[in-house]
Amino acid sequence: QQIFQDGVYHADPHPGNFICMDDGRVGLIDFGSVGKFTPEMMDDLILLLHHLVRRDFRSIARQVLKIGRPGRDVDSRSLALELLDSLDQYYGQSVSEIHFGGLFQSIFGIALRYGIVMPPQYVLLGRTLVTLEGVVRTLAPQIELLSQVQPHIEKVIRARWSPERILREVEDQAAEFIQSART
């Protein structure tokens, strides 16, 4: 929810920053490191994860190109094939088997080889998820994380691209266009 809906998340989720509440909820402390995403960045991240969960490597490649800043022409088909070779190994594994550091290093490493610079917000998120991975490994190593995340991503996708939201964005853009035309 912090990342996909609020756009602001705790970026240092090590075990010392969690508190088990008396009612069973988990609390967070020490917000010295906070990550922030704009609504557009949240949309981009949601689509990236949606494509990752569905193993749609061509769409993953397109999304990496959209999120990052390519410094040169990139063959999206080659990028998709390299992502397939690198990421396919993570499917069907439990958290105890997946090394998220390796997963993100794979994505960022491939992007770097193709001359794609990833925005710092995504790099911070990668670091945050690597830290969170250690906590999840300790508490529930049997969880297969991608299958756990998929229903939440699909719910957020439906809300993000609902007719009401699209209409609101069209109205906002029309008002912006009218103001630009007046100017």
Topology, please?
Blueprint lengths: L1 H5 L1 E3 L7 E3 L5 E3 L5 E3 L2 H15 L3 H11 L1 E2 L5 H12 L12 H14 L2 E2 L2 H20 L5 H16 L2 H20 L1
Antiparallel strand pairs: 1-4, 2-3, 5-6
Helix pairs in contact: 2-3, 2-7, 3-4, 4-5, 5-6
What's the short version?
The chain has 8 helices and 6 strands. It is mainly α and 183 residues long.
Structure description:
Helix 2 (39-53) packs across helix 7 (145-160), helix 3 (57-67) packs across helix 4 and helix 5 (100-113) packs antiparallel against helix 6 (120-139). Helix content is 62%, strand content 9%. It contains eight helices and six strands; from the N terminus they run αββββααβααβααα. The chain has a two-stranded antiparallel sheet. The model has no long low-confidence stretch (mean pLDDT 86). The protein has 183 residues and is mainly alpha-helical. The N and C termini lie far apart (39 Å). A hairpin with a 5-residue loop joins strand 2 and strand 3 (26-28).
How would you sum up the global shape? globular
Low-confidence stretches: none
Radius of gyration: 18 Å
Q: How many β strands by DSSP?
A: 6
Number of helices: 8
Numbering strands along the chain, what is their spatial order in the largest sheet? 1-4
Distance between the termini: 39 Å
**Which band does the percent of strand residues land in?**
5-15%
The percent of residues in helical segments reads: 55-70%
Average pLDDT taken over every residue:
86
Largest sheet: 2 strands, antiparallel
Topology as a string of helices (H) and strands (E)? HEEEEHHEHHEHHH
Q: Helix- and strand-based class? A: mainly alpha
